[in-house]
């Protein structure tokens, strides 16, 4: 921590000398001033102190970053280092005073999902907007659902974002328009900002998302099934019980649509499972669609709710589109009570059968 209390005054570690009775402004236990030749000065609790506002252990990166973020975000509001929020027992790394205050959290070390969720909920309870800026450790990692689930949030003009702070370059990295293509891969754009006003004024450039490669996807499914890949076995079983093979899914399920991350192995697999399930029956209603839709999402490894964004609206859109597609293709009919199955989508037995058929189909100019 960079701010401590000394005789009822808040003091900054860079302005004081060692040997005074500093206490933590959160728990009022004694803290010690640490300074070295390489690390900027900071205060540390004594070993074993149980501070309810303990954030991550100070590192050179964290100390330096907090001070840099104060400068970088100053145009957005008067910055304050380490504001204590007694009501929610939290300490914001940097606080920006404005109509809706912003709490900046510079996250350099690992943190559990539960911890991010509880800190986020705390800030929301006070009407404060939390912004997580991720340190080097995260910047170097391959993008995973784990990180998206904890930290991704919507920013106007930028879509779903992850923010990174680099203490060496003092640049804000914005990974923006984060989404998932139908075959499951994440897609996003990256911008580096020198000035915080760019975050407000300039929108992230719109990106064309890659077109999913359907044949590669069928091959991948087949290979994963042969390897008995754990996550896919359950999906294949579900589809198999309806008499089909995953890799032989109907061509018409192909889609260029993207979803927010949270769709597990991707929208396409969700459409495959849903189609297998819905066409097992003669008719179904909206409630049944919702029930199956959620079950299919979980089956493909998806999740309805991330800490800071909701996947449910996208799932709803996916339901509507899938039903419209099959109605348009003449396999479903809309009735007052729901939908009536009036035809069966065409599945092939497996990948091999698909390849044979598409070899014939290609002469007619198959779309995918
Ligand atoms: Zn404390």
From TrEMBL:
It comes from Levilactobacillus tongjiangensis. This is Competence protein CoiA. It holds the Pfam family CoiA_N. InterPro entries: CoiA-like_N, CoiA_nuc. It comes from the Bacteria. Residues 14-53 form the Competence protein CoiA-like N-terminal domain. Residues 58-151 form the Competence protein CoiA nuclease-like domain.
């Amino acid at each position: 921590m960079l701010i401590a209390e000394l005789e009822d005054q808040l003091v900054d570690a860079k302005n004081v000398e060692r040997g005074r009775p500093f206490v933590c402004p959160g728990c009022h236990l004694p803290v010690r001033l640490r300074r070295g030749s390489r690390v900027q000065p900071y205060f540390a609790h004594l070993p074993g102190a149980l501070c309810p506002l303990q954030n991550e252990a100070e590192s050179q990166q964290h100390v330096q970053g907090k001070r840099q973020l104060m400068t970088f975000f100053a145009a957005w509001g008067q910055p304050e280092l380490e504001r204590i929020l007694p009501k929610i027992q939290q300490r914001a790394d940097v606080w920006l005073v404005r109509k809706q205050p912003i709490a900046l959290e510079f996250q350099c070390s690992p943190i559990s999902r539960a911890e991010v969720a509880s800190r986020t909920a705390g800030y929301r309870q006070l009407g404060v907007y939390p912004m997580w800026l991720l340190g080097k450790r995260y910047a170097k990692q391959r993008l995973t659902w784990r990180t998206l689930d904890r930290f991704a949030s919507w920013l106007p003009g930028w879509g779903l974002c992850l923010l990174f702070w680099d203490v060496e370059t003092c640049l804000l990295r914005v990974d923006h328009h984060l989404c998932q293509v139908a075959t499951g891969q994440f897609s996003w754009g990256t911008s580096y900002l020198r000035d915080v006003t760019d975050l407000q004024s300039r929108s992230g450039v719109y990106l064309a998302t890659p077109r999913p490669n359907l044949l590669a996807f069928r091959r991948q499914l087949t290979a994963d099934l042969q390897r008995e890949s754990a996550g896919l076995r359950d999906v294949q079983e579900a589809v198999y019980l309806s008499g089909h093979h995953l890799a032989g899914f109907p061509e018409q399920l192909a889609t260029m649509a993207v979803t927010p991350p949270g769709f597990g192995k991707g929208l396409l697999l969700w459409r495959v499972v849903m189609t297998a399930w819905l066409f097992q029956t003669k008719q179904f209603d909206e409630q049944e669609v919702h029930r199956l839709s959620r079950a299919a999402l979980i089956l493909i490894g998806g999740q309805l709710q991330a800490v800071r964004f909701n996947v449910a609206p996208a799932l709803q859109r996916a339901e509507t589109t899938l039903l419209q597609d099959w109605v348009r293709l003449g396999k479903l009919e809309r009735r007052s009570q729901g939908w009536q199955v009036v035809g069966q989508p065409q599945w092939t037995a497996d990948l091999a059968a698909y390849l044979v058929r598409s070899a014939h189909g290609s002469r007619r100019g198959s779309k995918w």
